[in-house]
Amino acid sequence: MTAPAAKAADGKALVAARGVTRVLPAAVPVTLVHDIDLDIFGGEVMAITGPSGSGKSSLLYLLGLLDRPTEGRIEIDGADTAAMDSDALARLRLEQLGFVFQFHFLLPEFSALENVMIPMRRLGRLDEAAMTARAMDLLGALDLGDLVRKRPDQLSGGQAQRVAIARALANDPAVLLTDEPTGNLDSKNSAAVFDIFEKLAREDGRAVVTVTHDLDLAGRADRRVELVDGTVVSDRHQH
Amino acid sequence: MTPLALRIALIHLRARGRQTLVSLLGVATGVGFSIAMAALMQGSQLDFINKIIDATPHIMIKDEFRNPAEQPAARRYADGAVALEGAKPTEELRGIKGAGRTVTQLEAMPGLVVAPILRGQVVIRYFGKDEAAAIVGIDPERHRRVSQLAGDIRDGRLEDLHTAANGLIMGDGLARKLGAGMGDTVTVSSPAGVVFKMKIVALFHTGVISLDEGEVYALLKKVQVLQDRQNVVNRIYVKTDDVYGAFDRARAIEARFGYRAESWDEANQDILEALKIRNVIMYTVVAAILLVAGMGIFNVVSTITFEKLRDIAILKSMGFREADIRAIFVLQGLIAGTAGSVLGWALGFGLCQIMSTIEFKVRFATDMTQLPLYYSPWHYAIATVFAMTAAGLAAYIPARRAARVDPVDIIRGAA
Prior knowledge:
The complex is a heterodimer of chains A (239) and B (415). Chain A is α/β, with parallel strands linked by helices and 239 residues long. Helix content of chain A is 35%, strand content 26%. Chain A contains eight helices and ten strands. The two termini of chain A are 24 Å apart. Chain B has 415 residues and is an alpha+beta fold. Helices cover 56% and strands 17% of the residues of chain B. Chain B has helices at 2-15, 17-55, 72-76, 99-108, 140-146, 149-152, 172-178, 209-212, 220-226, 246-257, 264-267, 269-307, 309-318, 322-356, 377-403, 407-414, and strands at 59-62, 112-126, 129-138, 153-155, 167-171, 185-189, 195-204, 215-219, 235-240, 261-263, 359-361, 368-370. In chain B, strand 2 and strand 3 form a beta hairpin. Classes of the chains: A alpha/beta (239), B alpha+beta (415).
């Protein structure tokens, strides 16, 4: 896996939330997150924890530009995204952000290799051979080298989730955003996935943000942010 | 991007194979029948127009005026109320005045071939049987160039009019009704009271009953004597090298010579208008067929978008734009439209081949007739444009909806 080391080196936040509030419009408006300030740096694994309904996933989607704040702003690598149109946000997601969800969400008709190549094809920076080589490298690094031709329904849960991680890394993003990535995995596979996250942060200098209910795994993160009722109640470095 | 979108689109369609096949067959049926109908419609239209063009002169100059000349009294008292009492017009010998000079001047015009005609009515008697007919006085050499009469003669030749003292070319239907045949002499009497014994020197057959049973031809000079209208012609037939420019040529001729000059399309304006309406009806029916086919495509693409909401959400989270998502689903419609069109081409061609073998008898024609078909790549192109437009629009509606899917809603729902 190639290392975007420069992203970690300059100490600048890769993702920053400034006074971010998200309110769902309804007869009785629902506040998902309220006045969140957060800086996420390269080289750290940050766990977002909190009780169900505390706004963990909502915050992750806001940080990942899948949702827009009703107030405040999200900055990616110093660029304010508030005024960007949906195409520009899509471009940022494509180039700088990678997502892993609780369910792997692999496209069922495509092989593991093809799934990993989809973001690269969309970006269109590499030729076919280079894309294939990079996808093979990513899958090989996640111990999936023998399974590249398998389709998602031929993979175990842990294998499929690792393919999803490889896909999230396809365009070499600076930030990996994961939402309960171990929620469907047993403890062994969960630990293996977290090992990968640590490696991506420590060796590659990426920022890894993971929403989790698993306090043991959260305990392994460099930094833990706890949310209650959409508000950050604690933000502490653990190691 | 496009190859990936195309690939995803194809995979989605394959996953919905049976439904895709049904929608594709809908398009194929629409395109196929559109091609067959267009071939038949345009074939019959061209056949009809060609028959008109072949059977009639491109331009007919008649011994009448489109706008009657203004009366001197009306001209003198333009603003007054003019009443003439007891005025009786003198009996005028009708015909085109200075016809010889007109013919010469017309012949000098580029692209025109001209033949003077005297047309009148006669009664033909043969062994106690009387039949009324139109007699056309012609100059065979000139007439050959403006009419296909020479080609319609089954027995004898056009020139044979010169071989007998009073030669007559008769429609075979009329000859049959009279019981007369080649070489027989019939009695021909005109409204002027002149009676000729005329010998049948040729028989023609056009396939049109009104002509085959109602028309005879003789030398112009003989008909002028028979009608007691010496040196008179009442029609000038004009053939032009630009059939579809006949209307403008007719207008120019009329402006120059004053007599009513009627082009073939003006003379058959009502029929040509009816043909246009028929074409509008045909294309409306085709559009309706393809609209139904479009609904099939709408159905399959809608189903796929509904089934693939999670994929759409994850693609958007990866960085696919709304336009990329839209492209995937519009492509599905266009693929179904394209495949359906290609199948439709084969179906349309096959239907045309089958129709070309069908023979039947038209009530007022004497020959067996085949369906007139006209093959044109334009029929295929127009049907395909219709089909692709219907397919594209049908797919665009669900594609637009799919592109607007909020990935957060879907991912939350799936989690």
